[in-house]
Each structure stands twice: as C-alpha cells, then as structure tokens.
Amino acid sequence: MTEPTPRDRAVRLYDAFTHEHRDRRTLLREMTALAGSTVAAEALIAGIAASPAAAAAIVDPADKRLDVAMRTGTEAGAPARAYFAELKDKATRGTVLVIHENRGLTPHIQDVARRVALAGFLAIAPDLLAPQGGTPADEDKARDMIGSADYDLALAQARAFAQQARALPGSSGKVGIVGFCWGGAFVNRMALAGGIDAGVSYYGPAPDPAEVANVRAPLMLHYAERDARVAQTGDPWVAALKTANKPVEAFTYPDVDHAFNNDTSAARYNKAAADLAWGRTIAFLHRHLDG
C-alpha cells in the first residue's frame, strides 16, 4: 500500500475534524505538527475547507434563464425554508430535492440547485436547520446544529416538500433527491422512509445493511476511493442492495477524496470525477423523473 502523502494526511485530519470531533484547537495542533508552523497549518486548512467566496462560481444567481426564490413557511409543524430554482420555460418537469452537507444550506448548495434547474428540473433545496433558526454563517456552529437536529422532523419536512411538488403546475408528478455527505446519508434514509421516486447519494454514510429490504426507490451512489470513513458503511450497503436485487448503480471514483464534487474546496475538488458523476446523476434523474 502506498504511504499517504502529507496532503493525504491533511485531508484525513480535516475530515476527522468536520465529521467527528469538531474541535478546531485539536485540528490546528495536528495540522501544525504536520505542516511545521501555524501559518502553514492555516494555509492547509484554508485549501481543504470549503470557501464561501467561491460558492457561486458555476451558475450566476441572476442567470436570466432561471426563476429562483428563497421561500419560508411551516412544514411538519415546524419552521421551514427552502431555495427554489427552475427554468422559465414552464415545461413539464420532475422535481429534485437537493440536500445539503453538514454546513447547512450554503451558497454552494444553492449553486448546485441552480445547476439541477438548468438540467431541466424544479430544484428545491431545503434548509433542514430551519427548525433551529436556519443555517448560520458560522460553519462550525452549523455542524453543531446538525449534530442536534431532529432527524425525524428533517425527514418529515423533506417528504412534505416532495408531496407538495408532485401537485405543482407543470410537475411530472415525480420527485427525486440528491444529497452530499450528510445529505448523501439523508438520501439513503429517504429511500427507506419513502416519498421519493429516485435518489442519488454523494459519499454519504450508509444505513445498516439489515434495512435493505425497506428500500423503496432506485439509487445511484457515488463514492471516493480515498474516503475510507464512508467506505466502511458504503461497501456493505452496496453489497446488500445488490444481493437483495434492489435497483442500484454504484460508482467509486479512483484517486479522489471525500467531497470531490465540492468546487469550493480547492484541495478536494476533482473536476474530472465531478463532471463524470454529474453526467451520470442527471441522466439517472431524467430516466426516473421525466413524465
């Protein structure tokens, strides 16, 4: 086995910080030991972490082809908020819920929703931190909020958005879901809970394989070869889905890290893998959601 490079070790340290201990002092101490100085450590962290400044790099929020809006209300008896995006052509289309990472409904996820809309869907990106006051600007705080979120309520709100979308004018009557990291895990849970017609999970931790009999929707699962943490649950989940003859397409992208689709993380984004996964995702969603 190839010895991990300093960059690989840095990515793993950041992954442990963002998904496990969330202790920034520990992260900085470990990165400093790796990089040799606090200044170099901060530079490493900045390159790996998502950058809000790069969040709208692919689709302009003011793109004249799109209607976009942030809408608030109440779903499942709690405050709700979601970003909506769709083409102005008023054609019949399927709906795709876009589920955020553990940092909440960031500008990057709104950008992803616009990409989904340009691909020919109504995109709805719920802020699943809305019951706690909504996604904060402080990403560390958002991660803490995710850790204490009412997961059953989040599922209920997502299912409510899906149910309403089916009845909208111009809807094909079908709803899919795509999620990233924490949102990727959420896609798997929605496939078990019901209420969707197709799901795409990007590097999302998977449920217990014993639950596979309850999967109610076809799935597409994207994994990163270097993402050992997610592979621990992802590999058994894929094997169980295939053994149970559940409709699943699973892809592992070689030599890439967790969050390889996130173009706001300079150190982890891999354009070739992201483009390949995106093309597969959009084709899969059209196959299952078009009227």
UniProtKB/TrEMBL annotation:
It comes from Sphingomonas jeddahensis. The keyword Hydrolase applies. InterPro entries: AB_hydrolase_fold, Dienelactn_hydro, Dienelactone_hydrolase-like, TAT_signal. PANTHER family: ALPHA_BETA-HYDROLASES SUPERFAMILY PROTEIN, CARBOXYMETHYLENEBUTENOLIDASE-RELATED. GO terms for molecular function: carboxymethylenebutenolidase activity. It comes from the Bacteria. Residues 82-288 form the Dienelactone hydrolase domain. This is Carboxymethylenebutenolidase. Its EC number is 3.1.1.45. Pfam families: DLH. Gene3D superfamilies: alpha/beta hydrolase.
